[in-house]
Design a protein that fits this description.
This protein is mainly beta. It is built from no helices and eleven strands.
C-alpha cells in the first residue's frame, strides 16, 4: 500500500541544520510531486516546499527561501528537505505528501516528524 514515512527530525539549536527524509513506497515516485508541510504548535498547517515530478521544479514558502532545499532521488524512492540556518519559528511537525502536481490534491500523507529549534 502507499506509504510515506518522514524521518530526521529532532532538537537543534538556532542556526543549526537538519535534513528531513521522506521514504516513499507502494507507488511510482517518478509520477508524483512531493510536498513538505509543517504545522507549528497551535497554528494551522502550511506548505513549506514542493518538488514536481516532471522537471524537478521547486517552490518554497517565502520564510524558508535561501535556507531550505528540497530534492528527490527517484531511484531510492526518497525526497529530502535540507534545512539550514534554523530559527525557533521553524519549530513544527513536518509532513510529506504526494500529489500529481504541486499544490493540487495531496492524497497521501506521512505521520510527521517533530522539529524543535531551541537553545
Amino acid at each position: 500500500q502507499v506509504q510515506l514515512v518522514e524521518s530526521g527530525g529532532g532538537l537543534v539549536q538556532p542556526g543549526g541544520s537538519l535534513r528531513l527524509s521522506c521514504a516513499a513506497s507502494g507507488f511510482t515516485l517518478d509520477d508524483y510531486a512531493i510536498g513538505w508541510f509543517r504545522q507549528p504548535p497551535g497554528k494551522e498547517r502550511e506548505t513549506v516546499s514542493c518538488i514536481s515530478s516532471s522537471d524537478g521544479s521547486t517552490n518554497y514558502l517565502d520564510s524558508v527561501k535561501g535556507r531550505f532545499t528540497i530534492s528527490r532521488d527517484n531511484a531510492k524512492n526518497m525526497v529530502y528537505l535540507q534545512m539550514n540556518s534554523l530559527k525557533p519559528e521553524d519549530t513544527a511537525v513536518y509532513y510529506c505528501a504526494k500529489a500529481y502536481h504541486c499544490g493540487q490534491g495531496y492524497d497521501y500523507w506521512g505521520q510527521g516528524t517533530q522539529v524543535t529549534v531551541s537553545s
